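re: ur msg from earlier - yeah i can do the nicotinamide-adenine-dinucleotide complex, just paste it... oh wait u already did. ok heres what im feeding in:
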Amino acid sequence: MNHKVTFIPGDGVGPELSEAARRCIDAVCAKTGTAVEWEVFDAGIDVVEKYGTALPEHVLASIRKNRVALKGPITTPIGTGMRSVNVELRKALELYACLRPCRSYKGVRSRYSDVDLVIVRENTEDLYAGVEFENETPESRKVIDLVNSFSNPKKQIRRDSAISIKPISKFGSERIVRFAFEYALKNKRKKVTCIHKANIMKATDGLFLAVARQVAEKYAGRVAFEDRIVDNICMQLVQRPEEYDVLVLPNLYGDIISDLCAGLVGGLGLAPGANIGDSVAVFEATHGSAPKYKGLNKVNPTAMILSGMLMLRHLGEHGAAGMLEDAVKRVISDGISVTYDMKSDRNDPTAVGTREMADAIIKALR
Ligand code: NAD
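and the outut:
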């Protein structure tokens, strides 16, 4: 079948990685008798001058039309006031579920060999909602005065504070927890673990946990359920990652635990991801734009290529997805044509570049 996909190369190392992924997808499609037609659009700080925004409407329109996009990482400059294009995109398209599978591949340099976890991160709420007030502004003072006017005297906020609001809704919590259970059922997963800090954030995380427990009841007997406090799960994951299956988390904990889990399976260069809504899905690696490596043909394309593999699965191209994943596995387990981060010595002169690793994966397709 032919598919039309929006392609956003990204910035930093984004263009070289997304190009590597695109070549692998084109190659596997050619072998399996399918085809992807790419609609290429730029987004990020480099397009602001031309379009007056980092996320032009025509990019969103293309994704809405095609319903599927493959996206390279995009830089969010610190201290400029510019909002994250990645966060804006997820909000604009209601991509409420961030799915990040983390599994051990044979031959990867890691302390663990049997990790097979799936992170389901809420993507639209929490401290990521962008409801923020800088300190010593009329807005922050108004918010502080209002909150102090009905808060316990022992819980008064200092007037020179900056404020970030953490909204967690019943609707958003229900939607993401249901997504996690449905994913577990469809993919024959046994357990969903809800991660929270409800012992301290009784209102927000308390609601997330209460809703998770209610949703879990509907799946009782089919998918097991448990919950863990976020600090505790950090230790548990490092000690016994094999005990966990599907993790469902509010946005910020999901962001942090995603990187931790990427570390369990060999690093950020190996962690793919997808942002999924009811009608649209955008596939991208867990990692960012690693600006210091820009243009060096150095970093690992695996996370982007595996994000492309998830995209093929989403498009129903299971044969092509399986063939691509097998080729990635072969190249990794051979350990020869892999990038510096996959060698036991990071200065190993036999490490290949981004392009060459993609070439090896294309060669290993069968
Ligand atoms: P990062 O993920 O870009 O890089 C951190 C480090 O991880 C790198 O220095 C590198 O050592 C390693 N790394 C990352 N990708 C790798 C790869 N493919 N192969 C090998 N090693 C890799 O995180 P950061 O430095 O915190 O963020 C850089 C920029 O990316 C920031 O502007 C941030 O906002 C943005 N970002 C974008 C996204 C996205 O587009 N979805 C996600 C996270 C961060």
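cool cool. The chain has a mean pLDDT of 96. ping me if u need the other ligands too
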